[in-house]
């Protein structure tokens, strides 16, 4: 009898283990206004099926989350799944920490916008599942433009001319941000690239140099205010307090500016000016399973991503965060939202002209040299060509090590 009871208890235990969902520890970087909705998606996914349970933790923005992940990888305690910026993905793969995913992606929808799934690939193989992709937009003070008889700029020449006309003793026409993202917007919109076809830094390319010379000229003329990455909060404050009237920022800044900050003017939003062949950078984040996950956990990650990619969930995500719709199937659910504000249609139409901004694994090693060069040129008066040549030399030295 005792042996029968023991066997019965063992079978009960095995049954309970079989029914226990596979746990996936997840560190995410979706802060406000996305955080509540994103964590709500996780809870809904956990509740609607019994195979997987995602245990989540918010770890700050992309930079903060990346630092915490690197520390955890060194000391132990890293998650199974990380929500990282797509430019971080190449480094993860280069360090041998990525997990190939293509074998698990059979049957996914074929209506993703061009290039979107490519953001999760490194050398043609999928290691990340994109969930929040954005393009930059051009913000301007519509009241000041109207007062000066100016139209929304459609070229970078328009921007320079408007900046000159809007500048006064009390305010600058344009805000120049000397961070790699903002500078890359200008470079890509002119058909250039910060990384060459050989995968090496491309800072001395003519279009890169011309882009920095363009910004430097506006600063020299006094029609633009230069701010570095540490002064980003002042850039926003300058714009909101009408100390500057134009600037470039990710489209995801739009709800933060308009919905959460009372502003004393009508906000103008338009597409990034482009030359023929120019692109707008596609940036954002992806779900990145990390080395050590089990095949079952990978299946759970893909199942969660597919849930996020359902058209209704994409539409909710777009309306809250202003990230781009991942799939064309979500567009009909957004039509009324676009119609409610024509600025949205103009800004989101850039989805057709978007291209991946950076996937170079060495990016995390050399982007600081570029930002130093931007500051030297825009604040220190060093010639654009000389500053970029120095940054190129330093970046190539790092790549050779």
TrEMBL record:
Which keywords does this chain's UniProt record carry?
Signal, Transport
Pfam families referenced in this protein's UniProt entry, alphabetically = SBP_bac_8
What is the similarity comment for this entry? Belongs to the bacterial solute-binding protein 1 family.
Entry's localization field: Cell envelope
Q: Cellular component terms, GO, for this chain's entry?
A: cell envelope
Please state what the protein is called: sn-glycerol-3-phosphate-binding periplasmic protein UgpB
Its principal location? Answer: other
Q: Give the signal peptide range.
A: 1-18
Which InterPro entries does its entry note? Bact_solute-bd_prot1, SBP
Q: Which CDD domains match?
A: PBP2_UgpB
